[in-house]
Design goal:
The chain is an alpha/beta fold. It has ten helices and 15 strands. It is an enzyme of class 2 (transferase).
Length: about 350
């Protein structure tokens, strides 16, 4: 249940939100049809989950499944179709009311129980054999829903049980975002079009575009300047909530050719066990676009590179101090002979400045 809204911007007022307020705002955001429409319509997302569940039918048939953050209940229905004896579909937002109708419409109310509430507060009548969840947010960890999956794993999953997906990996690569350049250069073209000099807007535009926000945009393959570098891997069977407080790693990339690095691109994959050849859901710019798109981190100053210029550094992802559901990304990086630079990026929802 990963909410995507197009582009995030840093809120101007920063105050730490009470956790109940954070959670209420988060769950309320899933009460609108648009988010669920976008997720179900994402064919890569929905069909990969469907294939992963059906291909694991031997581990699901006759077993008990827990769907964490069930949303409209589509994954629960996939599990019932794969032969699950019982599916507990836990959903905290009011979309749970629609999930009840969908389950009934598909004549599966005898096998799927919709439980309205937060995973941490509900009770189940039995342990489960399988946990399924679509918990991934922007840059993988935005919204911190993985914490609930790990809570469910530790409290409800039988020893030797199955988790779908079972692994997540994070990647980074340098890029040249030509769209950002075009937007900055636009103000210098206004005079030739309309006879009004607006070139003084360029500095203002730069502050709005090249800031500390994590921008969520689709990145084209042509903009990526090197092979991907994996900087973190999460094993959902063993990772702990404490470890999610700082997901860090190093990266090293060699540029393809002459260009300009003006941003980093971050994306993720999740993997489902499937015999010898696991099934991978990828949000890479080299793959079919998903509703997660990619996370773009703009550098304060662009840097020219040539063939084999090395781009390396360390990256740390951690929850925001203002709201634990918001992700921050800190990057220490060097490009060629440039001395090490540092920048911290935020991806807040933009609602904390509206709270009393």
């Amino acid at each position: 249940m990963s909410r995507q809204k197009g582009m995030m911007s840093l809120c101007t007022k920063k105050r730490k939100l009470d956790k109940n307020v954070q959670d209420n705002l988060y769950f309320d955001s899933y009460s609108d049809v648009t988010i669920h429409e976008e997720m179900i319509a994402d064919h890569v997302r929905t069909n990969t989950y469907r294939m992963a569940i059906l291909r694991n039918s031997s581990a699901i048939e006759g077993k008990v499944v827990l769907d964490v953050g069930a949303g409209t209940g589509v994954l629960s229905i996939f599990c019932a179709q794969a032969g699950a004896r019982k599916v507990y579909a836990v959903e905290a937002s009011s979309i749970a009311d629609q999930a009840v109708k969908i389950v009934k419409l598909n004549k599966m109310e005898d096998r799927i129980d919709i439980i309205k509430g937060t995973l941490e507060t509900i009770d189940l009548p039995e342990q489960v054999d399988v946990i399924v969840s679509e918990w991934m947010g922007y840059a993988l960890l935005h919204e911190s829903m993985l914490n609930s999956v790990l809570f469910a794993r530790d409290k409800w999953l039988k020893s030797g049980g199955l988790i779908l997906p079972s692994k997540a990996e994070l990647y980074i690569a340098p890029m040249n975002d030509l769209v950002a350049d075009d937007r900055l250069n636009f103000w210098s073209t206004v005079k030739s079009q309309y006879g009004v000099d607006m070139s003084c807007m360029t500095d203002f535009a730069r502050k709005c575009i090249i800031n500390n926000d994590i921008t969520v945009n689709p990145v084209t393959v042509e903009d990526v300047l090197s092979h991907q570098s994996k900087f973190a891997e999460l094993d959902l069977y063993t990772v702990t909530v404490d470890q999610l407080k700082s997901v860090r790693g190093s990266f090293s990339c060699d540029c393809f050719g002459s260009s300009t690095v003006n941003a980093f691109c971050v994306w993720f994959t999740v993997t489902f066990p499937d015999g010898e050849k696991p099934l991978v859901l990828s949000t890479s710019p080299f793959k079919q676009e998903t509703h997660w798109k990619q996370a773009v981190l703009y550098l304060d100053e662009p840097v020219d590179v040539e063939q084999d210029t090395k781009v390396e550094g360390e990256i740390n992802m951690y929850p925001s101090a203002e709201s634990s559901r918001h992700i921050c990304i800190h990057v220490d990086y060097s490009i060629g002979q440039l001395k090490m630079q540092s920048k911290t990026f935020s991806i807040p929802d933009g609602y904390s400045d509206t709270q009393p």
